[in-house]
Amino acid sequence: MSKEYGFATRQIHGGHIKNSAGALTTPIYQSSTFVFDNAEQGANRFAGKEDGFIYTRLGNPTEMELEGKLAALEGSEAALFTASGMGAISSTMHTLLKAGDHVISSKVVYGCTHSLFDEGLRKYNVDFSFVDTTDTQTIVDNIKANTKMIYVETPANPTLDVSDIQAIAKIAKEHDLIFVVDNTFATPYIQQPIQLGADIAVYSATKYINGHGDVVAGAITGKKALLDQIRMVGMKDMTGSIISPFDAFLVSRGLKTLDIRMEKHVKNAQRIAEFLDTHPQVNKVYYPGLKSFAGYAVAQKQMALPGAMISFELKGGRSAGEKLINAVELMTLAVSLGDAETLIEHPASMTHATYSAVDLEKAGISEGLVRLSIGLEDVEDLLDDLDQALTQL
Ligand SMILES: *Cc1c(COP(=O)(O)O)cnc(C)c1O
Fold it and tell me: What's the cofactor (predicted)?
């Protein structure tokens, strides 16, 4: 699809594949395998001499529509959808790394990403340095002869650390390193890592990309040559982590409204962050849309909007946080994020429970940190709910 169309047009029409019945939306091709006309055609498809579907783990029309849509939104050459965000990350890492390689990773990453790197991949003799990627000099200082990749989450889960994608892309180019960005918190509506110089962007499509809390899915975007490798090695053989046709259909449906959802999520989040920032019970607010936040300037530079994830610490620490989580009535106690419902959770004991106490401290994820995924409700109702819960402390 032409890149000249605006974002909203691309999110609706991008990737559409005509079907024989002329259905407006791409049907759910609920089929594991695809029929060959004859032996020669089957052999040619396997040999890559002829385009066409073979088996759903290698590609499916419902999934292909979704790939086209996301690639059109990001202006990337290609996209690939997986069964989960962890499927996207593990397929990428398994394809591009080998024993003896070294990776520089943000010290603040999603909990399961941290355990995949620190335990899962270390078992295969891949080495990791978890560093503060908001400081580009620290990245340079940690490059070794065997460094192969820089992996950055920005804004990071859950402290919202903002790393400078353009500056890191420059370092990666100079040292011939692969640069991967987890863009889950920002979405392509707010931040486009490939345009900013990253080689690969990964997503938990479970979150804003789908946006309705009814699917677990992941995505990878970037250069076609890299994505072809990830599809045919990491995804096809090593993780087998393909999205199902039905989930691909649901994500296509969700993605059509990404822009209007993000606008409302962010509008609500900005109001709530400002409310928390001036509240006497609140010690510190982590939100890229607050001038007082460390990542504000870089966020202004590379993000169209500050996103809708907020973390904060209460003056009463962990026990106050637990009381607050139990006292809210409208906000829902659940992990995950990017849904219509506002979700509240405690990272140290939930999403980041895979971190050791030492690693939590190193990453700046305090025992008292509370994380909010601001939903699409009326913001006055959300503010009232927080207010009543805070007065109970
Ligand atoms: C949730 C999440 C993941 C993992 O995605 P799943 O779809 O749950 O496998 C990865 N990165 C970030 C930033 C996340 O929030």
Answer: pyridoxal 5'-phosphate
